[in-house]
């Protein structure tokens, strides 16, 4: 997968990139649902009704957002949105096994991820700042404005950022090849991000099969 970081964002962000081929996406999996619920309950038990900012790892995504010119208290990193639900005792949204497994990985690592159907992405892809008036159709929402914000862009246009993914490249039950992107601050060590990608790959393949066809740290 050809993916690069544009010069205006280079040195502000570190990406973990994983491509899985031959995945099998299902509506739901009882074992996965139980593991998600158990992980949420663990966060709730350990941190109670405390603020999400008090949970170890949350500061990493907030540091990333600030480096990218975003206010993390107004535009929540996707991982913190999941965490806030867990701390409130609420279940995570159930979409399908691949999305749910990645949400589990994001909750555990406290990093925002992007998840895309690779067959709907037209390389090359680049993470850059959005242009004036640029947007994409969000999943179950209207246009997502990316003017001046970090955004992944392929030959067809913008398709995702650390907060929300696009309808064009969303995961469905027909998805067979997936692109996973972990967003971390520049100061996040490559070794630490490799560990996150190891764990994420193991979780996704455990519940959705498939195998790694490409992986890199940018």
Quick tags:
218 residues; alpha+beta; four-stranded mixed beta sheet; 5 helices
Structure description:
With 218 residues, the protein is an alpha+beta fold. The chain contains five helices and ten strands; from the N terminus they run ββααααβββββββαβ. The strands form three sheets. A four-stranded mixed sheet has the order 1-4-7-8, with no helix packed on it. Strands 3-9-2-10 form a four-stranded antiparallel sheet. Strands 5-6 form a two-stranded antiparallel sheet. β5 and β6 (143-145) form a beta hairpin. α3 (78-87) packs across α4 (97-109).
Short description:
This protein is an alpha+beta fold. The protein has five helices and ten strands, in the order ββααααβββββββαβ.
Q: Beta fraction of the residues?
A: 15-25%
How would you sum up the major sheet? 4 strands, mixed
What is the helical fraction, as a range of percent?
25-40%
Strand order of the largest sheet: 1-4-7-8
Mean pLDDT: 95
**Low-confidence parts:** none
Helix count, per DSSP? 5
Structural class computed from helices and strand pairing: alpha+beta
Order of SSEs, N→C? Answer: EEHHHHEEEEEEEHE
Radius of gyration: 16 Å
Task: Tell me the number of strands.
Answer: 10
Shape: globular
Distance linking N and C termini: 12 Å
